[in-house]
Amino acid sequence: MIGISSTTLLVVAVVVLIVAVVIVLLAVRSRSRGGATPAAPVRTGPASPTAIVCPFCKREYEPAETDRRCPGCGAAAPRGR
Ligand SMILES: [Zn+2]
């Protein structure tokens, strides 16, 4: 006597697949919305409070460490608040 039939395995596989699809859909939706984080009014989100993101090449850097110049493209750092 077999406890798990092939039908049960199929149902479990389908349920797992549906759950995976739902998780992916939720992740894509929350990512595409982009408005989930109300903390930052600007869309740039540097990890460090003093770090900035270059508006030209999108590189994140510390202006104090690079003499207020982007290490990627050499553009001057944008004026902060
Ligand atoms: Zn740059």
Task: Explain how this protein is built.
This protein has 81 residues and is mostly helical. It has two domains: 1-34; 44-81, no CATH class. 35% of the residues lie in helices and 5% in strands. It has one helix at residues 6-33; strands at 52-53, 60-61. Strands 1-2 form a two-stranded antiparallel sheet. Strand 1 (52-53) and strand 2 form a beta hairpin. The chain is rod-shaped. It starts with 5 loop residues before the first helix and ends in a 20-residue tail after the last strand. Zinc ion binds at residues 54, 56-57, 59, 70, 72-73, 75. Zinc ion (ZN) is lined by residues 54, 56-57, 59, 70, 72-73, 75.
Describe the structure concisely:
The chain has 81 residues and is mainly alpha-helical. Helix content is 35%, strand content 5%. Strands 1-2 form a two-stranded antiparallel ribbon.
Secondary-structure element string: HEE
Strand order of the largest sheet: 1-2
Largest sheet: 2 strands, antiparallel
Query: How many helical stretches?
Result: 1
Whole-number radius of gyration? 23 Å
User: How widely separated are the two ends?
Assistant: 74 Å
Helicity level:
25-40%
Decide which structural class fits the backbone.
mainly alpha
For the secondary structure, the number of strands is 2
Molecules bound to protein: zinc ion
Strand content: under 5%
Count of the domains = 2
Q: Indicate the low-confidence ranges by residue numbers.
A: none
Question: How would you describe the shape?
Answer: rod-shaped
How confident is the prediction overall: mean pLDDT? 83
